[in-house]
Write a structure and sequence with these properties.
With 121 residues, the protein is mainly alpha-helical. The chain has two domains: 78 residues, no CATH class; 35 residues. It is 64% helix and 7% strand. The chain is built from four helices and three strands; from the N terminus they run H-H-E-E-E-H-H. It has a three-stranded antiparallel sheet. The chain is extended, with a radius of gyration of 19 Å. It starts with 6 loop residues before the first helix and ends in a 9-residue tail after the last helix. The mean pLDDT is 87. It comes from Candidatus Defluviibacterium haderslevense. Keywords: Membrane, Transmembrane, Transmembrane helix. This is DUF1761 domain-containing protein.
């Protein structure tokens, strides 16, 4: 059975994902995120500095992020269609599975980093 892709939903999901990132990194936790990544803002020139060096103002990261969000939305659309998840509860189960798989990867990556932020002996 072939299903059609709802492109309006794909674009809405991509924009929604970008809005969540804007809220998280821009409004809610901007100062903590900047401090954790060694980023400061020069208040006289309004330039962003990372470890004392001026950061590029290239639009490339936003373009790549937009493309990645569209690809993510297409993959989730494919996965939901492939699993036959067309209800809220079945979609939530697929979403929880994706989240758990992502969380495991993040956790393992942090275990191999030189910080013991998540794991204490």
């Amino acid at each position: 059975m072939e299903t059609k892709t709802n492109w309006l939903a794909i674009i809405a999901c991509a924009i929604g994902g970008m809005l969540l990132g804007f809220l998280f990194y821009g409004m809610l936790f901007q100062s903590q995120w900047m401090a954790g990544n060694g980023i400061t803002q020069d208040l006289t020139t309004m330039k962003m500095m990372k470890n004392g060096a001026e950061m590029s103002e290239s639009p490339t990261p936003m373009v790549v992020n937009t493309i990645a969000m569209i690809v993510y939305a297409l993959i989730i659309n494919w996965l939901l269609n492939r699993t036959g998840s067309h209800t809220l509860s079945s979609g939530a189960q697929v979403g929880a599975s994706i989240g758990l798989i992502s969380l495991i990867g993040i956790f393992v990556g942090h275990m191999f980093s030189s910080t013991d932020e998540f794991v204490h002996d």
